[in-house]
Amino acid sequence: MALPRPPSLKVKALQWLAQREHSRQELGNKLLRLLARTQPEALNAGAGAGAANTGEHDEAPCLADAPPSPSDAEQVDTLLNWLEQRGYLSQERFIESRIHARQSRFGNTRIRQELQQHGVSLDADTLAQLRQTEYTRAAEVWRRKYGSAPADAAERVRQVRFLAGRGFSMDVVQQVIRHGASAAAGSEH
Fold first, then answer.
1. Could you give the CA distance from residue 177 to residue 148 in angstroms, rounded to a whole number?
2. Which tens digits make up the pLDDT trace of 101-125?
3. How far apart are alpha carbons 108 and 3 in whole angstroms?
4. What is the band of 168 on the pLDDT scale with cuts at 50, 70, 90?
């Protein structure tokens, strides 16, 4: 009985893109790791046949941690270009989907850092749109988590640290905390 053939790089890339949007860098890294995993299997299969004949069990070198060969990198780059030309891979869609998924919970700094990790940067228009909505988004995150003004300095620090950790700018964090404290004081009277 023959073993099923593993899917080609193109098929695997299309499967990953069907699940969610990927940046070019992220998809390229995944494809290179896939190639690195499949190559040692071929070496192990060849080494296993020789070891069965001699009775020795030598371990084949593990190439999973080795840098990709130039032919692998070229193969992946060619595939990525093909995917982009046909519209399967799009940096713009990736940015849109990542922002849409993150903007309700995170600030501009966190979103920008996450995109940079994927080898993508925001254009000026998108960054301006995010800046316009940052206060509203931070206020909503604060309201869901706390909903009331800090009772003391320790609670204020905790709230500031929470919002700053979510990637909101310090100016916006201070405005949200100040507005929350004044709204709570106004509702008491």
1. 9
2. 999 999 999 999 999 999 999 999 9
3. 49
4. very high
Within 10 A of 154 (CB to CB), how many other CB atoms are there?
Answer: 9
How far apart, in whole angstroms, are the C-alpha atoms of residue 170 and residue 183? 20
Residue 10 to residue 16: CA distance in whole angstroms: 10
Q: How far apart are CA 167 and CA 106, in angstroms?
A: 6
Kindly state the tokens that stand for 134.
């940052």
Region of poorest pLDDT, from 14-23, 69-78, 163-172: 69-78
Tens-place pLDDT, residues 47-102: 444 444 444 444 444 444 556 666 888 999 999 999 999 999 999 999 999 999 99
* Distance of alpha carbon 154 from alpha carbon 162, whole angstroms: 12
Alpha helices for the chain (secondary structure H): 9-19, 24-54, 70-85, 91-102, 108-117, 124-145, 153-165, 170-188
Nearest one of 68, 145, 48 to 104, comparing CA atoms: 145
Written as six digits, the tokens of 39 are 């190559």
**The pair of three-digit structure tokens given for residue 159, joined into one six-digit string:** 């709230």
What is the distance between the alpha carbons of residues 143 and 35, in angstroms, rounded to a whole number?
Answer: 47
Give 163 or 42, the one with higher predicted confidence. 163
The CA distance from 111 to 99, in Å, is 7
